[in-house]
Design goal:
The chain is mainly α and 87 residues long. The chain has one domain (8-85). It is 80% helix and 0% strand. It is built from 3 helices and no strands. α1 crosses α2 and α2 packs antiparallel against α3. It is globular. The two termini are 26 Å apart.
């Protein structure tokens, strides 16, 4: 099982990113612009290290979500991720 990210600042940034994307169902471009603003802020404040922590944290959380969904459906998380993220 994947452990959740414990760094509170990283968690706050991940939540801000998700809110940006999910906040406006009617305007995809506005959500992406808001997400870019969040990522730009992370880059300004934390540089490469901040971006890396954010990306790793977000990936770990996403993997945890795949594990939970896959478990509920009796699937392997890697298989579920392959289906969801494949072209």
């Amino acid at each position: 099982m994947i452990e959740p990210v414990r760094d509170q600042r990283v968690r706050e940034r991940m939540l801000a990113a998700m809110r940006a994307v999910l906040s406006d169902d009617n305007n995809h471009e506005r959500g992406q612009a808001a997400l870019r603003d969040v990522v730009d802020q992370i880059a300004r404040e934390g540089g490469r290290s901040g971006l890396c922590n954010f990306a790793v944290g977000l990936s770990l959380e996403l993997a945890g979500v795949f594990e939970r969904i896959a478990s509920e459906r009796g699937l392997a998380a890697a298989d579920l991720a392959e289906v969801w993220l494949a072209d």
